[in-house]
Amino acid sequence: MHAFGAEFAVPPGYLNTPSIGVPSAAVADAVAEVVEKWRRGETRPNDFDAIVDRSRAGFARLAGVPADRVTIGASASQLVGNVAAGLADGARVLVAEGDFTSVTFPFAAHADRGVTVTEVPPERLADRVEGHDLVAVSLVQSIDGSVADLTGLRAAAEASGAAVLLDVTQAAGWLPLETAWADWVLAAGYKWLLSPRGAAWMAVHPRAHGRTRPAAANWFAGGDDRWNSIYGLPLRLAGDARGFDLSPVWLAHVGAAVALDYLGSLDLAEVRAHNVGLAKALLGALGLPARDSAIVSLAADPARMAAAGVVSGVRDGRVRVGFHLYNTADDVERVLSAFE
Length: 340
Fold this sequence. Notes:
Keywords: Aminotransferase, Antibiotic biosynthesis, Transferase. The chain contains 9 helices and 12 strands. It has 340 residues and is α/β, with parallel strands linked by helices. Strands 3-9-8-7-6-4-5 form a 7-stranded mixed beta sheet, with helices on both faces.
């Protein structure tokens, strides 16, 4: 199918983007081409440096920050781990109750240093910031698609001096981001960013640089001359956010570079309107309150959904569907048919 200027082979009824996005033909072709070169022994390690730089710049555009603020990794939890490792002993962290564990576990793992992690209902997050050193939350909740109140959170954090970490994995790619004010903004690429699994990024605000620790310091995080300085001490890392880089998963960044270039060329306000419009159409037809999210959580029978040709996820005992730019009104009808 042709959607938003790209070709997709996504099957009808595919509504599982919150679990794994479907690449465009251009993304899949780019990865396949490099796999063939790899098969023939035609790839060289430093061939991928420019590709990683391209994916880094692509995420920077979506996040609204300069590329030198962006570090790369393979998963969200790895990147959050750099923030957790930089916390002072006894730090107090506030999180949303029921948030994805890649946001919360990296902090909870530092309990031996006196780091405490407090859960509150997502809608109470802004009210409870006072007395905490850091607030970590998903902009869009994986479990049900609820969207955080960033206006309230930002005001509360600035008033109390708390740092803010935002995981935009379930938002980047369909929701225009206005998050450059946050201390850390991160995303994994294999969902709404339509990239292979193994590429993730985090924007590090200059004020947060000294509070971020290179927990897995490695050769790739070296300076501009990394290929000539990969042996021996002393420690020498890039002075900007690249100093927190993890060694890249090359094939993942090949696809991500193409995917992020594509998404960066779109008007994400239009993508949001398309996705949220389909979600609201579904909720309206079911007599449920409208929400401004591309993700919908339903009390439904997963077996009936599958029988109706709907590919969905199940979270917290409920069917979870997500509408992205390659979905249509026909997908809404498929979901509705499972309720007949």
